[in-house]
Amino acid sequence: MNPIPLAVDLDGTLVQTDTLHEAALRALRERPLALLQLPFWLLQGRAEVKQRLAGLSRFDPAALPYNQQLLDWLATQRAQGRRLVLCTAADRSIADAVASHLGIFDEVLASDGRTNLGGQQKAEALERRFGAGGFDYAGNARTDLKVWRRARRAVVVNAAPAVQRAARECCDIDTSFAPHAPDLGTLARVLRVHQWMKNLLLFMAPMAAHIVPDAGLATRLLLAFLAFSLCASTVYVANDLFDLDSDRHHPRKRRRPFAAGRVPVAWGVIAAPFLLAAGFLLALPVGSAFLGWLAVYFVVTCAYSWGLKRLVIVDCLVLALLYALRIIAGAAAAGIPMSFWLLAFSAFLFLSLAFVKRYAELDVQASIGRERAHGRGYLTADAPLVQSLGIMSGYSAVVVLALYLNSDAVLRLYRSPEFMWCAVPVMLFWISWIWMKAHRGQMHDDPLLFAVRDRASLAAGAAFVAVLLLGSRGWTW
Description:
Elements: E1 6-8, H1 19-30, H2 38-43, H3 46-56, H4 68-79, E2 84-91, H5 92-102, E3 107-111, H6 120-130, E4 136-139, H7 145-148, E5 153-157, H8 161-170, E6 172-177, H9 184-191, H10 204-208, H11 215-242, H12 244-248, H13 265-283, H14 288-306, H15 314-334, H16 340-367, H17 383-405, H18 408-413, H19 423-439, H20 447-451, H21 455-473
Parallel strand pairs: 1-2, 1-4, 2-3, 4-5, 5-6
Helix pairs in contact: 1-3, 11-13, 11-14, 11-15, 14-15, 15-16, 16-17, 16-19, 17-19, 19-21
């Protein structure tokens, strides 16, 4: 039995996130007008700010990204009879909720709206409670050095190398837990670089118009692609920050870097405006028309992330619009008029894919016994209706394609338009295949990402391209 109590920090130590930053994000999402009072709260001190932010929204302590390695070690310490104290600068309401959920702490010391229990104040509070050198302390940040100097021994958790060196110089280290530093793969997941392939839709309008780009047009389209990609990454980062709670309740999305605590949420708050500025700077040489559509895309995406994604049916309509906006922006970058047929076809097709995405999410939620999709307006019982709407939208896209193939535009653009009719059964197969896979529970959250990895979808895509080439060039016997 170890008679020396062990005080454990919360943010960055017990949990791999900062609860204050997350409380601010929840308040910004749910009570943005209340944040106008933030300057007045700051005048009353940081403890007041923490208490006010904690009171603006609720959080689920069970969903926080805990440091499981540390938790296992703490459970061993408690089993040996050691007294555990949760000692944190976070607000008391947050600390009490975490302690109640974990059930391993004998005592809680936290900020209370008047005293900000961090750094020197934390060190003094622990010394008053247990005496000089009468406790061990587990922490992770440079501010914890003030506590370690008053402690008997230090437990260093998830600390930067400089903090680890400073801790070794100021006190004895009992135990050390290695930090989880994000690598390039994790940062790529933050930006969702794999989602950039969606922006290849920018090239669809010039391709459909049979335009062979010269050096100038190719440069503009490349800049447009990069601008859209950076702008999209901005929204992905913001969306992940605002969706932390929902993602942590999802069996797959909970592994996203911010939700899992692998990347600090503060990094996302800092990175988002830089990504957005870089995207719009790249868009300037492309032209004012493209810049305007990029701005529309950003505003609509923000509206979706802010609240439209919680509205039944509206969320899928907006998702389809965001796909279509890429095609419209590509036409603007190329300086060509937008084809009505291409716009109508893409609207129905992307609406079907949006319903696929939502159906797949509802199927996952239903499989784990939930009646409602967290953070969405759907019940899991809505899945059959969503499926019906999606299939109808997909087949409507095929009808639009068939009508287009009977128009004068096809005669002007294609040397052998009769070959183009083969595109209809190819599209019918692919739409049916996508929905068959979704019905069987084999669909990825994003149908486009599923399509680029699925052999049948790739084969259908190759067949569609072959049909276009035959229609364009004809058949030489």
